[in-house]
Amino acid sequence: MSQIWLQVGQCGNQIGQEWWRIVSNIVAEDDRYPYFSRDGLSNAICVDTEPKVIRKLCQQAKKGNFRDTNIIVGQRGRGKNWAYGYQGISTNGEKSLLDKTMDAFRKEVERRDCYSGTVILHSLCGGTGSGMGSRLCEEIREAYPAGYILSVTTAPHETGDSPLQHYNSLLCLTWMQRFCDAVLLFQNDEVMKKAACLVEKKAITASGLQPSVSLPSMNTHIASSLAGLLCPVYSLKTRSSVSVGLEPWELIRCLCPMSTMKFLHTSHVSRRGMASWDKMTSSVVQTLPRADPHGRLHHSLSVLAAARNSQDYSFLLSRDSVLMKLRQAYRCVSWNPSPIHCWTDPQNILDPLCHSLTVCANHSSAGDLISSVLAKARTMYDAGAYLHWYRRYNCEDDHFQMSFDTLNSVVDEYRGLGVL
Length: 420
Prior knowledge:
Strand content: 15-25%
Largest sheet: 10 strands, mixed
CATH topology of the largest domain: Rossmann fold
Low-confidence stretches: 90-94, 204-208
Radius of gyration: 21 Å
Strand order of the largest sheet: 3-2-1-4-5-6-7-10-8-9
Helix content: 40-55%
Number of helices: 15
Distance between the termini: 38 Å
């Protein structure tokens, strides 16, 4: 059950580069199968509307890591505008970017012996990642309705990456809700805090301040969290220890039993040596949002823990206590008969000497982010700010009203998660 990885925009391709660096360390041929074709090239399609980030991938294509026909580049960006990315522009060369991508996607599906779904990496903020990413999800859903779509998306900083980011996030989140089966949602502010804890082990610079967090270190943290969840695990292999690539789709099955709630929160921790699983669990739950801005306690619809050992089975001795602590900390709803799921693997692809614990939850804190996006986008919309940039590309009031209605429904669903 092979999967296709679709990297869209600057953010999606930067995270994708880190992901493939990690996955390339897979040694066992059976475990490489879900990610690489029989000719040894990755199952990746890399798309951007400007060549800046893609240049590195072009170099890797020459080394035989990526298929050169799967690297699709335009010559101008999308101005951090969702509507521009979604609709494209009128010139024939640029307009064909969508067609080229879908043609490459079709050929990649035909190379698979069993196409099961797509993992798309993108952002909510940029015009290409949000707009073209939304359009590609829509096109793939229409062309391959039986395949899963798992979105891995990053939300911009609260302080602001772009004056259009709230509109872009509003529209992109709506398209993800409509066309994706699950969304692994990473928030830049939260990722930065977690990455800061890993920089030089909280080393203090000569000025007495904590060292700054680089963009590559943030991308590495996101890619490591993905590897903790989606790399092969022993729990999902066949009896002959062959990986069939079930991880992304089992994650969707476990965590998204209700189609109205599909935004997932992920935490990842890794320790070297004789790490205590109980302490690692405490580190995971320590950064978990407890309540919304109004004091309402958060709850979880379902939780998945993926534990990777350093060549031992020590996790099995602590399994029950770890899962109990996670169930209590994540406040799993009482009406779900199976709210906790666990995967284990005796190897850690990130570092053979490390133990890692990755926890993914359908957690009501997603409603806080969506509510914040709604409030800021509504303020701008009521003031008529920047709307002409969207109307220029046929994004009218109907699109915004549909988005407000859709996301308000999602927020209501998450707020009612803990209500019996």
